[in-house]
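User: Show me an example of a complex going from sequences to structure tokens.

Assistant: Sure. Here are the input components:
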Amino acid sequence: MFNQHRLTGLLPAVAVTGLSRYLVILLVLACCLPVPVSAADTGLFQLEDAHTWRTAEGDFLGAQFEILLSSGAEEAVKNGVPLVFEFQVQVVKKNTWIWDSVEIEHVLYRELRYHALSESYQVRDVSAVSQGNYRRLDDALRAAGSIEKLLLSGRVLDSGLNYEIRLRGSLDIESLPTPVRLIAYVSSAWDMTSKWFSWPLVR
Amino acid sequence: MGHDKQVVFMATGSLKRTGFGALPMLVLFVLLLVSLYFLSDATDNSEHFGQMYSVLLVINAASLVLLGALVVANIFTLIRQRRINAAGARMTSRLVVMFVVLSIVPVSVVYYFSLQFLHRGIDSWFDVRIEAGLDDALNLSRAALDVKLHDVLNVTIRMAEELSSEPAATLPLTLYDHRVRSGAAELTLIGGDGRIVASSLSGLTEIIPNQPPSEMLVLMRNRQHYIGLDPIGDSGLYVRALVPVLSSRSDSEVYTLQALYEVSERFSELAEGVQSAYTRYNELAYLRTPLKFSYTLTLSIVLVLSLLAAIWAAFHSARRLVAPVRDLAEATHAVAEGDYSKRLAIASDDELGFLARSFNDMTRRLAKSRQEAVRGRQQIEGQRAYLEAVLANLSSGVISMGADTVLRAVNRSAQKNLDIDVKRYLGRKLSELAADHVFLKPFVEVIMRHHEQGDASWQEEVSLLGKHGRLMLMCRGTVLEATGKRGGGLVLVFDDVTALIQAQRDAAWGEVAQRLAHEIKNPLTPIQLSAERLRRRYLQRMDADEAEVLDRSTRTIVNQVDAMKKMVNAFSEYARVPQLNLRFMDINQLVREVLDLYRSSELNTCIRENLAAGKLCVEGDSGRLRQLLHNLLKNALEAVRETPDSCITVTTRSVTAGGLEQVELCIDDNGPGIEQGVLENIFEPYVSTKPKGSGLGMAIVKKIIEEHGGTITAGTNDAGGAQIMIRLMLVADSENETKDDQQASVHDAGL
């Protein structure tokens, strides 16, 4: 009953972005505010590995994102600004004649913050209220980008239909403190959003 | 009066032009202010509006863009109005500039100082001493913990050493003993692959031991110790110690002992307090620049909103203020162009309202005055048209001129009587008339003389020799009284009395002739009879000499009496009341019959006939007309008697004169012509160039023509000879025949 599918050749999907975000970007650009960002000083958020498997309980997803913070973001973390990473997982039903429909959607939040007293980084799964402490930032980021076992659906999906898994991770700018948000919207240093990756759910 | 209802509405028009009313704009401003309040609160990262910050920012920005577009539209509208020089545009511009300057200056000052205070206020939150204090506090906490950590590590190492010799079956109990003795919250023995070999937990609720991070397991594989402070969820601070358990058995795997020690509650609270304060302070220090930027942005949005609102309000207020003045300017312009129907709406009781009321009164009075002026002008025009009609239909010629003898008006009869286009000389001096038409010189001289003499009213008969013969004018002049700028002019009324005088003269001559005939003819017969009796009775008795004297004397008496009889008969003929026997006849045929008589005689004169083709019918007495032709031909023959190669030409043709079809009969000769002195009076009785003529031939000819309603003129032809031209009314041929037949039948019936 164990069926595992590893990702090979992931297909990027169309990026879905919020309108308000672009409006804010336009607004700030219109204000001609200097944003101290160099081209090399950018973060990274990309999918490293993803796989699904099926058990009697249902379909599960495991994934690992590679997250690298820009120096600005890293400085913010070290100064006590918490960062929230958002992971969107969608099970999309493929339709021949009409547009595809999102059958199931999971959104996971991982919060990364620095604990000055213990000189460690805390990674907290917001929904699961689980927490891990890491001495090194790399370990903390790896832990934050790890989805070990996510139950996609508690029910058995219709075997007669085609389903597709879509996955994306990003830094949640709206969770940043308000003063940082404006800069984060227009600065590439804070633009940490992976592409949408999709692959068919094989059963 | 329908236009009186055309009222200029001031306020509503301006509002429509602005594009937005005051109320919607007021609502927009209130909403913007509320939104700005939320934005300001959200900038502070408050719980209420922190999540809405981006949305609020977008709403405010969109509102500003909308307001900016409205202001730009107003500016463009104003620029366009200024380009086309619309009424009130310049005043609106000045007011808007004034309002904007008045609002920009204080707002900018407030903005500048607010920004300064804001930045200084934010900077004042941070102090190096506080920062150093917090660092010290954190380090103190760490130092305090370090002692505990060191003790704990030693205890854990000792436990690991004791556990190294314990058999696997007793490990859970041993762990329990060690945990109780050491006061640890949790002791866990972990295998090399990360599995939990044995554990002992102090809490009743916890059943799963806390797993160390994978990085620590890697550390353990290298048989290194780990001691550190771990905040675990909401449980507070814990000290985590990881020590490898080195077994004495060579074949057994290396375990790792993890010990979690709970930090005392008091210490934990204090440490967390320090940690929290330190983190918060660091976060704030880090956010200092972004925070300044956020507040500056919010303040700038408020500033721009205030400025845009002030500019819009400036436009709105300026338009409202200028609207009455603009309407007044437009209305004044309309009045200047002659539109007196403009009325201004009286929107207020202030000075502008008074001005509008006064303007309305003025236009009302102007309109009334103009209507009266138009009515008066129409009356004058009517009177003038009536006067012109009267003058035009007068048979008398009327000429009016100014004191400077410049012609001002002339009627139709004046042109007809003078037979020239007098209207061409309107606005020109009277003397120019005489210069262009020599025959009018006596006429002009008479007028000028009386004018120079200053005669107020005069009357004089003027004789002119025009193109068609003698022209007698009875002129009456009256000086006009000077009115206004115009000096006294002259009105000249003149009548063509040529025909009247001629008729009087003819009548006088007829009377004379009749009396002569009557008085002279009666004694002639007894004189002749007496002379003949003397001759018969005494001629035979007298000797030859006496008889010869008697014979000569009586013959002379008889001959002279005969001559006198002929003369008297001629007078009688002239004075005879015509008894015309009018019939329709062909002039050409009559001419041919008469000319045939002259061709048969032995004449040295060539007589040519140049007659029009076809018939030229007139209604006339053939006998009288025949006599007329004989008289004229005899005169012509006598005129060319001394002329070599003498020739007489008789021409007939049809002409149109004065819109009437006429027969023209011309008799031309190549004789010496008629002297100018004679020509003037050739148709007068006793005017003759012949030594033996009675002087009544041409007078009788003229009389015959007048009896037939025709005209006769005498002149000189191109060959220098005389030309007599007669014109009689032409009668249509078919009509002639019909009438001729009717008359013939009447005559037959009369017979």
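The lines above are the inputs; the final block is the predicted structure for all two components together. Residues 1-19, 738-751 of chain B have pLDDT under 50 and may be disordered.
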